[in-house]
Amino acid sequence: MTGWTLGEKNLIATAAARAPSVHNTEPWVLEFGNDELHPHQVSLYERLDRALPRHDPLGRDRLISCGAALAHVRLAIRVLGWTSDLALFPDPARPDEVAMVTATGRAAPSEAELGCFDAHTGRRSHRKPFAARPTDDETRALLAAQNVAGVGLRPVRGRDELAALAKLLHHTALVLRADHAYQRELSAWTAPVRDPLPGEGVSAATRRATTLPWAGLVRRTTAVPDIATLADRLRGELLVVVETPDDGPLDQVRAGMAAETVWLAATGAGLAGSVLTQPFHLSEVRAGLVESLSLNGFPQLLLRFGHPTGYREER
Length: 315
Ligand SMILES: Cc1cc2nc3c(=O)[nH]c(=O)nc-3n(C[C@H](O)[C@H](O)[C@H](O)COP(=O)(O)O)c2cc1C
Description:
It is built from nine helices and eight strands. The chain is of the alpha+beta class.
């Protein structure tokens, strides 16, 4: 049996490269299997050299990023007409092998899968305000229905929860704005162009004052609104916490898969959005969120969605 064709490998690798990653570090590498027994296999390895010691000392965001890329890899394989099995951390002797995906048979992709695949080329981090138009119940239900085993999707809503979140994001912004080592690392991973290639760092547009402090990356010059204003602005957003029952590597990879699955569904439904993990690297913020939302598990990411204001984000 012959293995992946060049075209198939290309499609899978290109899809992986379009996944979001922390500071656009793209901390993964793919290896396509070509042995006789498993000619249609692809492994995703974590790139430990793409480290962010200040932002992500434990490598949590790196594994979440690998999970997001894995969601794209699996989707691409479906669109190629394959079903697949997934093994996470399949070999204890190779702890950097995050996942092995093995094609198991042929089946046409569903409309929903084709829609998500279409969406993956248009997904971008949108760190600006959304249009005033609220998201409808149908879209909310669609996002809530996206399911990755072992991951919870917890909407943040109601005056008290939004006020608590605003307080935590306000605190985060002040701490990170004053953290020189953090700011140096972020600058080092900021590409000098609007549209950096995958793995080349975050867009220079994130330096602009128009990037929202609660929606993006906090810089030295970021103006931080007061807590009441922040809470008011959060009220116009669809906010979802991605939480996991534990905080190990498996949880982090699954959180990344779930977040990206939801993000693609949201993009397909015409929404724009961005993700945040910045706040969850401050232990007091993570603990504060667990307490104020009565979470059962560990918050891994915050997703924010809304209707775009009729333009492609200036990058
Ligand atoms: C694990 C993870 C953490 C991220 N954390 C943040 C964050 O805290 N703030 C932010 O503005 N963007 C965050 N991002 C978004 C990345 O910066 C973004 O995906 C990357 O720059 C590529 O740009 P794109 O999403 O427009 O393709 C995160 C992405 C991932 C996967």
